[in-house]
């Protein structure tokens, strides 16, 4: 029995270290090949403290666009030190009436915290149930990985929020852009969305789609 217990604890110890990181970090090398697990590692001799710092979130983004909003990402490789660590951030600036349209992050869940203004945020589960909440300064909300979600400035002035992701490269697909900002044939969009030809062509015209 003692031998079995000894073997059990030995295997448990080996198992616990076999999945541990074999190095402290893997700073992204944008010039190297990229794999599903992330960017290749920069030569450790070339890594500096600057790779672990990012100053881009301190400046407001340009909201003079169709959605009246701006997203400033701090993902790998721009924030090179996050590569492989399972974390990243972004800044959301929303002018009055601004919106981050329905979108998904296939690679990570998201946590949002409101710093200024009022934001109506929500997501839709795979069972098509809607979870909707009006968030004020200091409020937070989580958006599960891969689910459609959005943020809308529902206040009277500008809104600001910061988000954190459980991946250094969470990915992004905006639903309206996926349907109307490319060359997917209009008849297929009409057939799969039940929109009229006029509606599809109008949306393609607004978002730059063709065909």
UniProtKB/TrEMBL annotation:
CC per GO annotation: apoplast; extracellular matrix
Localization, UniProt: Secreted, Extracellular space, Apoplast
Segment forming the signal sequence: 1-20
Annotated disulfide bonds: 26-41
Chain residues that bind Mn(2+): 103, 105, 110, 149
PROSITE patterns, per the entry: GERMIN (PS00725)
Domain Cupin type-1: 55-201
SUPFAM superfamilies xrefs: RmlC-like cupins (SSF51182)
GO molecular function: manganese ion binding
Pfam families per the UniProt record, alphabetical: Cupin_1
SMART domains: Cupin_1
Keywords: Apoplast, Disulfide bond, Glycoprotein, Manganese, Metal-binding, Secreted, Signal
Annotated positions binding oxalate: 105, 110
PANTHER family: GERMIN-LIKE PROTEIN SUBFAMILY 3 MEMBER 3
Family: Belongs to the germin family.
Protein name as it appears in the record: Germin-like protein
Gene that this sequence comes from: LOC108846165
């Amino acid at each position: 029995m003692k031998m079995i217990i000894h073997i059990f604890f030995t295997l448990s110890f080996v198992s616990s270290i076999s999945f541990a990181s074999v190095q402290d970090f893997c700073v992204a090398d944008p010039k190297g090949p990229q794999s599903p697990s992330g960017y290749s590692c920069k030569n450790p001799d070339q890594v500096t403290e600057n790779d672990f710092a990012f100053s881009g979130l301190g400046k407001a983004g340009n909201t003079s666009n169709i959605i009246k909003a701006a997203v400033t990402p701090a993902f790998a490789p721009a924030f090179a030190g996050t590569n492989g660590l399972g974390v990243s951030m972004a800044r959301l600036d929303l002018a009055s009436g601004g919106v981050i349209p329905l979108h998904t992050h296939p690679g990570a869940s998201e946590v949002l915290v409101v710093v200024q203004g009022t934001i109506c945020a929500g997501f839709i589960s795979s069972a098509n149930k809607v979870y909707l909440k009006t968030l004020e300064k200091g409020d937070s909300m989580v958006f599960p990985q891969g689910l459609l979600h959005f943020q809308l400035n529902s206040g009277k002035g500008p809104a600001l929020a910061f988000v954190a992701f459980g991946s250094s490269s969470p990915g992004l697909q905006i639903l309206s852009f996926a349907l109307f900002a490319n060359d997917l044939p209009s008849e297929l969009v009409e057939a799969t969305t039940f929109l009229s030809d006029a509606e599809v062509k109008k949306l393609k015209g607004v978002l730059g789609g063709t065909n």
